[in-house]
Specification:
Bound molecules: nicotinamide-adenine-dinucleotide
Helix content: 25-40%
Distance between the termini: 38 Å
Radius of gyration: 21 Å
Largest sheet: 7 strands, mixed
Order of helices and strands: EHEHEHEHEHEHEHEEEEEEEHHHE
Shape: globular
Length: 366
């Protein structure tokens, strides 16, 4: 059977028919490319620097900033034309900078976003927009004062081939109206100090975003169930957990979160619709038959599982920015996710159903 693809839908190999062509657009920056300041040069920041330098087109790293001067310096040393700073605002003032990629920890995002707004620079901000709804609201208000969107939030699952295919089919009504989503989110293990609240704020935040995006509905209430914990979880961590969302459209969404499953990193989603179901995330790479066994492999972590999505996310941001446009997840999406996280953490602590409180959606984000 020959399958036709909608714009933005991936084929079975994950190839996209949008964002593939990296057309020459109006050049920006001293070398005809977008000069990016990367704020925060830890795990994600360093990976985005590598991506801008070696993987995607149309951008170059003009500046990096980290409170850790040695870390920023080491990274800049390997990149022709990049300068290291300890102050994010100074990096944004570098004459080669046209745009900002924020990859510092969540609590530092608000200050960096406001610094970028003061310079009217476009931003790709790693999730979370900010760690709580009140600070996200301040960012939302500051962006509205600019009168136009400046920020794409780094909810990169929206750029994963499987999620994009599912989204385009749900939007097309291919299987009828979606009634439920079943999400699974499993990590091999957790770093020291990982808490119950981080299970919502750092892990489930991705299911919060894909739920809102796939269903095009706000989440209105959250409940959390805690099965007897695995013996593999550190003391005090209630793992696994089952998180239930209700949406404004009347759908119910469950997420199995199991962050010490021991065997690898698995993320998937099944949409249950009126006329069928559609599931993504079962890809285990090459399917092998050998020595009396069949099977594939499981990615060890999110970097491997979502490598293509990170690349597409940053390419999409660079392309849109060079066209003078802002696309992708917005500050509204960052704010709504923060509000659902807050409700989720309260639901975890109380065992109760907690309603999500959102302000009315401003015109800029309609
Ligand atoms: N999208 C995803 O899948 C994903 C995955 C992991 C992390 N993240 C997000 O990426 C961001 C960074 O996470 P990470 O894992 O790279 O953290 P990290 O701890 O590895 O790195 C953070 C870096 O920021 C620096 N830093 C701290 N405060 C700063 C400030 N005020 N200004 C500049 N630099 C500062 C630190 O010195 C460190 O080098 C977080 O927002 C995190 O939630 C997203």
């Amino acid at each position: 059977m020959v399958e036709t693809r909608e714009p933005g839908e991936a084929d079975e190999m994950g190839n996209m028919n949008e964002m593939d062509g990296m057309d020459e657009m109006d050049a920006k920056g001293p070398r005809g490319t977008l000069g990016v300041a990367v704020i925060g040069t830890g795990r994600m920041g360093a990976d985005h620097v590598r991506r801008i330098n070696d993987v995607i087109s149309g951008a170059r790293v003009a500046a990096v900033a980290d409170l850790d001067a040695a870390r920023a310096g080491r990274l800049a040393d390997g990149i022709d034309g990049a300068t290291a700073y300890t102050d994010p605002a100074a990096a944004m003032d570098d004459p080669g900078v046209d745009a900002v990629l924020i990859a510092s920890p969540g609590p530092a995002h608000e200050a960096a976003l406001l610094d970028a707004f003061a310079r009217d620079l476009p931003v790709l901000c790693e999730k979370p927009l900010t760690p709580d709804a009140a600070s996200a609201l301040r960012v939302l208000e500051a962006e509205q004062k600019l009168g136009r969107r400046r920020v794409q939030v780094g909810f990169m699952r929206r750029y994963d081939a499987g999620y994009r295919t599912l989204k385009s089919r749900l939007d097309a009504g291919t299987y009828g109206r979606p009634l439920m989503l079943h999400n699974k989110h499993r990590n091999a293990d957790t770093p020291p100090g990982f808490t119950d609240a981080m299970m919502i704020n750092d892990s489930v935040v991705h299911e919060i975003d894909v739920t809102r995006w796939l269903l095009d509905e706000e989440i209105t209430a959250v409940r959390v169930l805690r099965p007897a914990p695995t013996g593999n979880a550190p003391d005090g961590l209630s793992d696994p957990q089952l998180i239930l969302f209700e949406t404004a459209g009347g759908q119910v969404v469950d997420t199995e979160l199991f962050v010490n499953c021991g065997f690898g990193y698995q993320v998937g989603c099944e949409a249950v619709c009126e006329n069928g179901t559609a599931r993504i995330g079962d890809d285990h790479g090459v399917f092998v038959n050998t020595a009396g066994h069949w099977g594939g492999t499981i990615t060890p972590g999110f970097v491997e599982r979502f490598e293509d999505a990170y690349d597409r996310q940053v390419q999409h941001w660079v392309d849109a920015t060079r066209r003078g446009e802002v696309e992708g997840p917005s500050c509204w999406d960052g704010y709504a996710a923060a509000a659902v996280c807050e409700a989720g953490v309260l639901a975890q602590a109380t065992g109760e159903r907690v309603a999500v409180e959102l302000i009315e959606r401003p015109d800029l984000y309609r």
